[in-house]
Amino acid sequence: MDNESVVRQVTSKDINWYGSIGLPPGSENVNVLARVESIVPLLLDNSVLRIDVLVKMFAVIPENNAAANAYVNKKLVKDIETSSFIQLRNVSGFDKIVSIHHDITVDRISVRMERVSAVGTLSLKVTYLGHVMLEGMVSEFPKNEPIRDAVINVKDINDDRVIQTTTTGNDGKYYVKDLEPGTYRVVVAAEGFEGDEKVALVMLSDQVNFVLHRL
What we know:
five-stranded mixed sheet; Immunoglobulin-like; mainly beta; 2 domains; 15 strands; four-stranded antiparallel sheet
C-alpha cells in the first residue's frame, strides 16, 4: 500500500560458521582470519528474509615458519557458504529493507593432522520499515465458527470518530494496514449477533479477536 504507515525496526541474529583448511606439513602456529565476501538477501512470503552469505576464511602461517617458506605461493583460503532465515514483522516489499550490517569473528581454532579448523560467529543486524497493522478474527460462541462480513470499525480512543472500517472474510479474519501507531477502540458488529468492543494498542501490530453471542 502506498499510503501505509511504517515504523523503523531493527532485528539482530547471530549465525555460527565453520571451516577448515589443509596445511603444509610441519605447520603448528597458525592464525585464522575471516571476512564477509558477499551478502545476498531475498524477501520471502510472510516477511521472512533469507540471507545467503559467502565467508572467506584465511589461514596465515608466520613467515619465519619453515613450512610457510616451502609453500609461499600457496593460498590457504576457504570459501564458506551459509544461509539464514530471519523473521521480520509486516514488511510489504524488499524496498522496505533499509540496511544489513554485519560483524564476523573467529571464536575458536584448532590444528590437527595438518589441518586447521575454525568456528566463528557472524552477527547480522537488519534495519527495515514494517507497516503498522491491526488484525484479528471474529467467531461465534460456542463453536468458534468464523463469522463472515462482520463490520470492524476502528475508532479514536478519545471520541467516536471512525478511523478505518473493514469487514471479515470467509475465514472470519480482518486486516487494517494503514493505521498510525497508537491506541484505538475496535468495535465489531455482525447481523444476528451481539456487538462487542475492545481496546487495541498498535505500536507495530496488534491482534484483537472477538467471540460473539447470537441475539
